[in-house]
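Hi everyone, sorry if this is the wrong subforum. Our group has a chain we'd like a structural model of before ordering constructs, and none of us has done structure prediction before. Sequence below.
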Amino acid sequence: MVFELSELLPTVLQFFAEALTYAPQELIIILILAVLIDLIFGEPPAAIHPVVWIGKLIGFLKEKAPKTHRKLYGILMAFIVIAFSVSISFIVIGIAHLDFVPTAIGILIQAVFLKATFAIKCMVQPAKEIQQKLDNDIETVRDELKTYVSRDTSKLSKSQITSAVVESISENYVDAMLTPIFFYVVFGPFGLPAAYLFKAASTLDSMVGYKNEKYIHLGWFSAKFDDVLNWIPARLSPFIIFIGAGFSNFAVGNLEKLKPIDGVRLAFKENKTTPSPNSGWPMAAAAGALQIRFEKPNTYIIGNEYREPDGNDISRVSILIIITSIITAFFGCLAIAAIGYFVPILTSMI
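Answer:
Right subforum, don't worry. Here is the predicted structure as tokens:
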């Protein structure tokens, strides 16, 4: 059925009007469906992936960046990208709530677009491919690793390659899973726009948020904004990783067991070891739980008292992060249910 875009405006306005009484059950179903879509199907094709659209817009604006006033242009660029990203979410909400769209289809549409803001399967799949080549073709692994981590990979040893992969997975847990779910939950009926706002900031940071001569000014705002948005989730991450590590011990089989409490201990002890104000929290939590040493040459060492990582630790961290991500979604559902329970009570008291 064909419809005019003008039909979306009343639908979105009606959504705003009904926001305070929006049913939490729908938010929970959307979140559960989004996680299942990720675990079963992984990422959608690039042509219909909203984050790819956001990335292409950033790439276009990046190419048009002037040689002067780059910090101001970077701020403007960030606002344009964020506005575009949030607009996608509101269009999705409008379509999902059109009168002729069945409720189940509307929920599924929102779940598909929510899934695009986080990644579970995609976090660990490249690591598995590297793990399979690590013993037999280290030169190829070094070359492929360049697209996975931001460090010179040409002279990394086998343990340093493993460390880079495990670090990346544990750090990405916050950016690729916890924070988008956090914003989706906290903002309730406006959770999808909030998750897309974060995804825009995160994608900006990954494309221009570098402290080198080319991006130091252009990506200044994007990097700072991403740090602000990840600040609370990063500090929550050790506690969720603690729970995830406990459940992971039932899934690691013959692999070395994890020590959950050591993850929390190391996170509070060494979270400031990394240059980023946020990445040290999940990385130290994972290093402690896995009982392995993380090292980025000439930059940082986390968990120096532990052994160097080996190939099996890629399997261990993959299990840890998948289970921790599922637990994150579970806690998200509980939080939505709690908010749905208490909001009517609080509003009736006002």
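For your construct planning: The CA atoms of residues 209 and 220 lie 6 Å apart. The first helix runs from residue 8 to 17.
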